[in-house]
Design brief:
Distance between the termini: 6 Å
Number of helices: 9
Oligomer: single chain
Order of helices and strands: EHEHEHEHHEHEHEHEH
Largest sheet: 8 strands, parallel, barrel
Helix content: 40-55%
Length: 251
């Protein structure tokens, strides 16, 4: 079982402090959030650790489903830079958000938003395949602006494009999926965090209401070979979540 932690937990610290902490826990992987304040990451720093990496492409001020073509192109371009960076450092996966909507597009052009998202996802998928990079699309939480909260719709799209999913367990629970509804063959990467279903809280594992053992055991029974990224809010939550994984599963 491969375990990692997101650098998001150290967003208010230097990347060096975050990498020091995660490596000090004995965790093997770090998911680098490739946007401000760590949009420019020195490879020499990464190479100074005995860590392996995944990349979370930018999601702040980025929208690959934007109906404003210049905004969409800029967003796709930023994510392509993350894919190129992943190729440079031999990262094992890239996580991409599928885009979002807003009041006017959602009211008047909802089908166009989805059409635009699909075109952008295909473009990014083709770009990734050309570089030999595994790019994955993440299911979204239950917020009005988020598209692809429906995991079945996302899975159907990804299968049609020969692409793969990041299962965000907390997001799925926030939308209302039960643990036994969260498995798809397209899943190649995991974001693990907990909540009570009422908010996308990113709590430490075991401190919410998600039946984590059910979904993780299902993944393991289906020979899941991806990485479980602990995507929680702070250093202490990484430690608590890692202890939960060690207590409940074979690591």
């Amino acid at each position: 079982m491969k375990i990692g932690a997101s650098s998001l937990a150290g967003i208010d610290k230097t990347l060096k402090e975050t990498l020091d902490y995660i490596e000090g826990l004995g965790i093997e992987y770090v998911e680098l959030v490739h946007q401000f304040p760590t949009e420019n990451i020195e490879t020499d720093l990464l190479e100074s650790y005995n860590l392996k990496y995944t990349i979370h492409a930018p999601f702040m001020d980025v929208n690959i489903a934007s109906l404003q073509e210049k905004s969409r192109m800029n967003s796709v371009g930023q994510i392509k830079e993350s894919i190129e960076f992943a190729n440079e450092i031999n990262a094992e996966a890239v996580v991409i958000h599928p885009g979002q909507t807003s009041f006017l597009p959602n009211k008047f052009f909802p089908e166009k938003v989805i059409e635009t998202a699909k075109a952008s996802i295909k473009e990014l998928g083709d770009f990734s395949k050309d570089l030999g990079v595994l790019s994955t699309i993440e299911n979204m939480p239950n917020f009005p602006t988020m598209i692809y909260q429906n995991m079945y719709d996302l899975n159907e799209l990804l299968v049609s494009l020969d692409m793969f999913m990041t299962l965000d367990i907390g997001h799925a629970n926030h939308v209302g999926y039960s643990a036994d509804e969260m498995y798809f063959d397209s899943i190649k990467h995991i974001h693990a965090h907990d909540n009570f279903g009422d908010d996308d809280a990113h709590l430490p594992l075991g401190e919410g209401s998600i039946e984590l053992n059910t979904i993780i055991n299902t993944l393991e029974a289906n020979n899941f070979d991806g990485i479980y990224i602990l995507e929680v809010n702070d250093f202490d939550s990484i430690k608590k979540s890692y202890e939960y994984m060690k207590k409940n599963f074979k690591i």
